[in-house]
From TrEMBL:
Official protein name in the record: Hsp20/alpha crystallin family protein
Transmembrane segments: none
Pfam families membership: HSP20
Protein family per UniProt: Belongs to the small heat shock protein (HSP20) family.
Gene3D superfamilies: 2.60.40.790
All copies of domain SHSP, residue ranges: 43-145
Superkingdom classification of source: Bacteria
InterPro entries xref list: A-crystallin/Hsp20_dom, HSP20-like_chaperone, Small_HSP
Length: 145
């Protein structure tokens, strides 16, 4: 059974520490910004940032990161795991223009980083992140005394 997990990219504003002299309305303003971004963010994101959507899902043995990168050559894709983050960089060339796309996703610690694999087929990049043995679900037998 696969589970789909929606990943949203953190807002830059949410990474800035709270200021001491905040307005009493600041919390309401932040919440309104968050609501509008979560509702309309997917429509505006392609025009505002060189990012691309990713899907995260898992089964009992692996976690998967799936990214649609149509029009990108396999040689123009770079995948790295550094400090618990999976970073995907891609370059798309179209006529006389070159577009650089990038995305970083936080990966749980229960992944075997040395066994991560990636495949690219029909414009879809799939990164396979094998789970460590202790992170895999195990069936526990119940004995009767």
């Amino acid at each position: 059974m696969n589970r789909i997990i929606r990943y949203t990219y953190p807002r830059t504003a949410s990474l800035i520490p709270a200021l001491a002299n905040r307005s009493p309305w600041a919390a309401l303003e932040s919440e309104m910004d968050r609501l509008f971004e979560s509702t309309l963010g997917d429509f505006a994101a392609p025009a505002l940032a060189p990012r691309f959507p990713v899907d995260l899902y898992e089964d009992k043995d692996n976690t998967y990161v799936r990214a649609e990168l149509p029009g990108v050559n396999r040689d123009d894709i770079n995948v790295e795991m550094v400090d618990g983050f999976l970073t995907i960089n891609a370059t798309r060339k179209h006529k006389d223009e070159t577009f650089t796309l990038n995305r970083s996703v936080s990966i749980p610690e229960a992944v075997q980083a040395d066994k991560v694999g990636a495949s690219y087929e029909n414009g879809v990049l799939t990164v396979t992140l094998p789970k460590q043995e202790q992170a895999k679900p195990r069936k526990i037998n119940i004995s009767v005394n």
